[in-house]
Amino acid sequence: MPWNSPPPVCLRTNGSHEYHKRFSSTIDRHLDEGHGFCLLREPANAEIVAGVFRYNDQRNYLLHSWVIMSNHVHVLVSPGESDSLNRIVAGWKRFTGTRINARTGACGAFWQKDHFDRLIRDWDHFMNVARYIRRNPIKAKLTVGAFLVYEAP
C-alpha cells in the first residue's frame, strides 16, 4: 500500500488546545504519579493494547512510536489513505476496552470518551514528540518492566 498519507499525529489525553495549554503540566503530573485506574500496569492488559496497535500497522496506519504506561498511552501514528484517525482510535479503544473488561470482570467505559491529538508540523516536531514518548516513563520514574515502549526502526 503506498503511503501518501497525511502527516503523523500524536495522541494524548483528552482536551482542547487551550485546555491542554493551561492544564497539561498538572494532568501530566497526575498521570505520571499513577493516579486513577492503573489497569495497564498489569502486563496482560498492556499486551492487549500493544497487540492491537501492532495488528494493522503498515496496513491501515504506520506506527512510529508508542508507550503504554499504567494509566495512559501515547501514540505517534500516520493514518493510511483509507482510514481516519478517529476511526482508528475508536477501533483501538473498542477492542482493547472490551478485551480488558472481559479479562478483569469489569464493565462500562475503559477509556476516556475523547482523545487529544495534534498535527505534526515538521521533522523537528516529529522528533520532539518521539523523544517525549520515549522519555515519558523515565520522567514518571517508572522502572523497566512497568511500561511498554516501541519505536519503529
Number of helices: 4
Shape: globular
Distance between the termini: 19 Å
- Helical/strand content category: alpha+beta
Low-confidence stretches: 1-5
Query: Helices and strands, in N-to-C order?
Result: EHHEEHEHE
Q: In angstroms, what is the radius of gyration?
A: 15 Å
Task: Please describe the biggest sheet, giving its number of strands, its sense, and whether it closes into a barrel.
Answer: 5 strands, antiparallel
- Portion of residues in beta strands equals 15-25%
Strand order of the largest sheet: 4-1-3-2-5
Tally of DSSP β-strands? 5
Helical fraction equals 40-55%
Question: Can you give the mean pLDDT?
Answer: 83
Counting copies of identical and different chains, the oligomeric state is single chain
Question: How does this structure look, described?
Answer:
- A 5-stranded antiparallel β-sheet has the order 4-1-3-2-5, sandwiched between helices.
- Helix 2 runs antiparallel to helix 3.
- Helix content is 43%, strand content 18%.
- With 153 residues, it is of the alpha+beta class.
- The N terminus is likely disordered.
List the helices and strands and how they pair.
Layout: E1 9-12, H1 17-32, H2 43-55, E2 61-68, E3 73-79, H3 85-104, E4 116-119, H4 123-139, E5 148-151
Antiparallel strand pairs: 1-3, 1-4, 2-3, 2-5
Helix pairs in contact: 2-3
Q: What are the main properties of this structure?
A:
single chain; 153 residues; alpha+beta; five-stranded antiparallel beta sheet; 5 strands; 43% helix; disordered N terminus
